[in-house]
Amino acid sequence: MADRVVLAYSGGLDTSVGIGWLKDATGKEVVALAVDVGQGGEDMNDVRQRALDCGAVESIVVDAKEEFADDYLMPALKANALYQKRYPLVSALSRPLISKHLALTAKSLGADSVAHGCTGKGNDQVRFEAAVAALAPDLTSIAPVRDLALTRDKAIIYAEEHGLPIRQSAASPYSIDKNVWGRAVETGFLEDPWNAPIEDLYEYTQDPTVQKDADEITITFEAGIPVAIDGVSLSALAIVEKMNELAGRHGVGRIDVVEDRLVGIKSREVYEAPAAMALIEAHEALESLTLERDVSRYKRGVEAEWSNLVYDGLWFGGLKRSLDVFIDDTQKYVSGDIRLKLQGGRATVTGQKSAQSLYDFDLATYDTGDTFDQSLSKGFIELWSLPSKISARRDLAQ
């Protein structure tokens, strides 16, 4: 069998160009691997055929939607994962999963290399190659688009000259990545941060300024994982899909951010992630009801570090694994119901209850009959303030 390279194939411009370049530059047969993470919009059989039409000797499609939801999205939800407090890691979460299947496929075919269609300016080149290095350090990673220094306009010309069956054209220069967790849009007129997004840019969400009657739903969680909507038990994938529909109808989850990329530049990105943002809102509310104060405060820092690690392509790294153990331990009592109101681009918590709740009505109430002994507060405050009082006396004495 001739030498082979396994290419992570999306069906878009960069990876379609990559098939031809890899063949010419390496002399290796190219196997295209498309991983379905809920990107939708196109039949995966069409994607498979396009790879063959572009010159791949074999084209493989893996349905990884359930795996993506269970093993990647749910850990992200338990971590309330938001990079720079805003971005729910839409693309970053899919890359380690795709890399895992790249490595597995390469091993099964006896290939000594894998490839991706990333440019040299983005984060994904790091995510793919760092993940493959962690999973299969003997494999070589090749980046045809990056290593040819192809700009997007040059790639379009290359595709036209070689008759590659792609749908991208110079008239629609957006770069779009999407999966069941959300959708990312960049390039084109968005490269100027002063330019506002236009409504035609969005697909997962409807215009939040168009007035609609609110939808109110109840999400049930068990150990930090959503398991039902309005009492109907659903898989993790089905809940994400349903929340995309419900929250997307009200324009929830639109994000416009100038983001600090791993490669050292700032990039303007527009995201829409209705399910992600609504579920994180609900999960955080349930945690506020069930986590001790010190655990909750400490977890906020862990969440930020967890998000940074995933954004930086270190899903399979040692620190990320260790943080997962901590996060999983915090979730053992995060069970209960959260009621959400969806309207006008917002998911608002309107009710929360849990059998594991640390909220004690008798302690919290200000009405007669409360069980909180207010007489204890005076001595507590004196002791709490004592270090400040002592240091203040020292400062005044200088």
Question: Can I get a quick summary?
Answer:
The chain is 44% helix and 20% strand. It has 398 residues and is of the alpha/beta class.
Task: Set down the secondary structure blueprint.
Blueprint: E1 4-8, H1 13-26, E2 29-36, H2 44-53, E3 58-63, H3 65-78, H4 90-109, E4 113-115, H5 124-135, E5 140-142, H6 144-148, H7 152-161, E6 175-179, E7 182-186, E8 215-222, E9 225-229, E10 232-233, H8 236-249, E11 254-260, E12 266-272, H9 274-290, H10 293-311, H11 318-330, E13 336-343, E14 346-353, H12 361-364, H13 375-397
Parallel strand pairs: 1-2, 1-4, 2-3, 4-5
Antiparallel strand pairs: 6-7, 7-12, 8-9, 8-13, 9-10, 11-12, 13-14
Helix pairs in contact: 1-7, 4-5, 8-9, 10-11
Provide an overview of this structure.
It contains 13 helices and 14 strands. It has 398 residues and is an alpha/beta fold. The chain has two domains: 4-174, HUPs (Rossmann fold, 3-Layer(aba) Sandwich); 178-353, Argininosuccinate synthetase, chain A, domain 2. Helix 1 (13-26) links the parallel strand 1 (4-8) and strand 2 (29-36). The protein is elongated, with a radius of gyration of 25 Å.
